[in-house]
Amino acid sequence: MRKIILMMSVSLDGYIEGPNREIDWHQVDAELHGHFNREIRKLGALLQGRVTYELLAGYWPTADKDPESTPEVVEFAEIWRNIPKVVFSRTLHHADGHTTIVREVVPEEIRALKEQPGGDLGLGGADLAAEFMRHDLVDEFWVYVHPVLIGRGKPLFPETDALTRLRLVEARVFGNGVAQLRYARAGNGVEE
């Protein structure tokens, strides 16, 4: 069965973006970008909320046309155009390039999607992740901790009364100081 993997960058103090939605503090160099490209290329689809989708769709479809683009950017533009995307939105009416719009998170439909053949499913966007977590649909958490404190902004995880036990599967530090922490749900049988 395919897994749903939450993949998010976060500041050391737990924010995914600053108070004005800024993400200019992300420290993505060639090594980290290459890692993202390799991991996302393995996925069967990206599951995104509207805001995340529109942010990415505003840049990646033509990013490789810029003569200043790095090899990693050129590679990811191709990945972005070809990977299936499922966008959860009640307001989006049109999306391009292998994109399906879904109006709401229906747990039975997500479980059926996990049963389909193909690679794991990458989940992006804090609001969508919170909804998936409310329905107990996230199997792994890949958190990329950037060595910066931004003070305030949008937290990765909302307040909740639910306790979710996790098991560390892998920890990796990139040359730029970003640390990847890969956690699985405790007891889900993910191998290290």
UniProtKB/TrEMBL annotation:
Residues 2-178 form the Bacterial bifunctional deaminase-reductase C-terminal domain. GO terms for molecular function: 5-amino-6-(5-phosphoribosylamino)uracil reductase activity. GO terms for biological process: riboflavin biosynthetic process. SUPFAM superfamilies: Dihydrofolate reductase-like (SSF53597). It comes from the Bacteria. Gene3D superfamilies: Dihydrofolate Reductase, subunit A (3.40.430.10). It holds the Pfam family RibD_C. This is Dihydrofolate reductase family protein. It comes from Streptomyces sp. R35. The lineage of its organism: Bacteria, Bacillati, Actinomycetota, Actinomycetes, Kitasatosporales.
